[in-house]
Amino acid sequence: MAKILIIDDDEMFCQLVSKKIKEMEHEVDYVLTMAAGISRSQDESFDLVLLDVMLPDGNGLDALPKIIASEGEPEVIIITGAGDVDGAEIAIRNGAWDYIEKPSSLNMITLPIMRALQFREVKNTSRKSISLKREGIIGNSPKMKACLDMLAQASSNDANVLISGETGTGKELFAWAIHKNSRRADGNFVVVDCAALHETLTESVLFGHIKGAFTGAIRTQDGLIRQANGGTLFLDEAGELPLSIQKVFLRVLQEHRFRPLGADHETRSDFRLVVATNRDLKKMVEKGEFRGDLLFRFQSVSIDLPPLREHPEDIKELVIYHMTRLCERYGKELKGFSPDFFDVLKMHDWPGNVRELISTIDRALAAAQDDPILFPQHLPVHIRIRQAQASLGKEKKERVSPATRPAAKEGVVLPPLKDFRNLVLIEKEKQYLRDLMSATAGVIKDACKLSGLSRPRLYALLSKYNITRPKG
Amino acid sequence: MIYAKMAEPAARRLLEVIRELVDGDLIEIYQTRESLAQRLCTPLNDLMAVIICPSDGKDLHDIIKIGDLLWDVRVILILPDNRDATVNQGHVLKPRFVAYADGDFADVSLVLSNIINRDRRRAGRTAVGYLHPVS
To answer: Looking at the partner chain, which of A195, A356, A378 has a beta carbon nearest the beta carbon of B128?
Structure first.
């Protein structure tokens, strides 16, 4: 018996649907506002939530992430009276299980509910029986958990997998984890970097060649497809595969047979295909740059990795994991973090995603040298400027009241450079001194040693900013 | 970064090919596993690729033992021979490209050239690997 919550301001609709759900022998309750829905989902564990979009206190889609992340991690079906294509896309991308319009017949709602609950039952059963090897994949946000669920499913069979996502989101890590969790874990994991290969090389590298097939073919050589026999073939940056090769590769996927260059007979290879790309292959198909039939073959299972800016709640865990790994590698003592270190990181957009985050941590460790605590000042300048700009924007809003605020051109908030520099310096000095007092528990001798300041200078700065030492 | 024993003819040919693409100042050469491991335990800022050219199967096996240090690095692998056992061992390092010691490395040159160009395009877009030095 499942536990279901309905969040909809139409009380009659709630009562009718509740009656239907009770006939299906499930437990059900309903609330009429978004706030009440969020509160209930956090207090109790539900299996399924039916969520209306047009609620009196807001748009139901805004509540979706909180509800999905709540105690029971329920499946969510979005229900609305007005079908909205963009809203459907937003809902599904943010983890909604389904999106349907209020049906004219209540019977039409039972099928999505049954399917959602069936899916949940299978998912929970799979989770219990599969102990997933993460292979260095870090993150427990709802978005990452959804991707890990897909990984677990992909690992349990040999279906082709398409992993998409921006540069640095961990596509190769996911491909490796699929391989290591699959029945092919003992076979080769063969990487084909389609972007690194020159067009003239690709065919020979993939399919192999016999001796003399072309100038430079000094011996017969197996290609990567043959070397992946019994294992996994990982096609990275698949969007770079030349059209001529796409045609041949399609046949390989269909029949698992191919002819090495110069050979007069075909060879077989039993491989499992995982494909990764940061390009929009659907758009490439529309432009004629990628074969639609090949894309169709690739995406038996699709995993869309979110950019880091869409799951900032994973940043802390990522930083701690990679900082620990790097400290072990460099033979350094583990470092602590100042209270605002992660706040600064969360303000950055991370266009390079997790790879950029790892590089940033690496540089922060180098900047910190023997300091035991990582402060925002150890971070690269462009990240600190971003945080300072955000702080300045907030301070400016607090200083100028709405009544006296002059009319300004929308979107333009730019102080003179000299003022900006002074404000940044003052702010960062103040913050540094607060962190220093915190890190040294107010012991002046330790604070002087850590900061490199003389005792008189330190006292002068503390007085200037009215910073008191913590009471011991 | 190149791992190769420069006494080997293949290693010297490889270095000639790389020097045509990359300034000598930007090439680091390591001839022992220990020196390579030591280097990999220091910051790898802006490292584009590590070219591993083991002299034989045992040398390859020894490099695989420090494979954890290469997990976040782009590897180009030059295998000493094309026997199945050697090839299967080589794939443990998840190389982005595999060539063989008896070749002329023209293919390695093409691949490295593509990697360099791609990294430069990405650096222009995201500043990864071209971050301002921390002041």
So the answer is: A356
